[in-house]
Amino acid sequence: MKKINLYITLKQGVLDPQGKAVQESLHTLGYTAVKQARVGKYMELIVEDDANVEQQIEEMCTKLLANPVIEDYTYIVEEGIVQ
């Protein structure tokens, strides 16, 4: 088994109203050192061992998990997960 740590974020230049709301709330709480906040998604996937796991992750991201027009994604594959 392998564990996939998947991070999906908005591309630079795409407006992030949720990130802006977080930044403003942090400023209200006194954390004025925060100059920008961007909000994304984190997912964990446990998958069976497969030689094509990275190709499958790419397909999953482009077909369903991320919107390639406005989002970027990165992932880390952890080996040898016991489930």
From TrEMBL:
InterPro entries in alphabetical order: PurS, PurS-like_sf
Record-linked Gene3D superfamilies: Phosphoribosylformylglycinamidine synthase subunit PurS
Molecular function in Gene Ontology: ATP binding; phosphoribosylformylglycinamidine synthase activity
Single Gene Ontology BP annotation: 'de novo' IMP biosynthetic process
Subcellular location: Cytoplasm
Record key words, sorted: ATP-binding, Cytoplasm, Ligase, Nucleotide-binding, Purine biosynthesis
Pathway listed: Purine metabolism; IMP biosynthesis via de novo pathway; 5-amino-1-(5-phospho-D-ribosyl)imidazole from N(2)-formyl-N(1)-(5-phospho-D-ribosyl)glycinamide: step 1/2
Keyword Cytoplasm: yes
Assembly behavior: Part of the FGAM synthase complex composed of 1 PurL, 1 PurQ and 2 PurS subunits.
Family: Belongs to the PurS family.
Protein name: Phosphoribosylformylglycinamidine synthase subunit PurS
Organism expressing this protein natively: Terrihalobacillus insolitus
Record gene name: purS
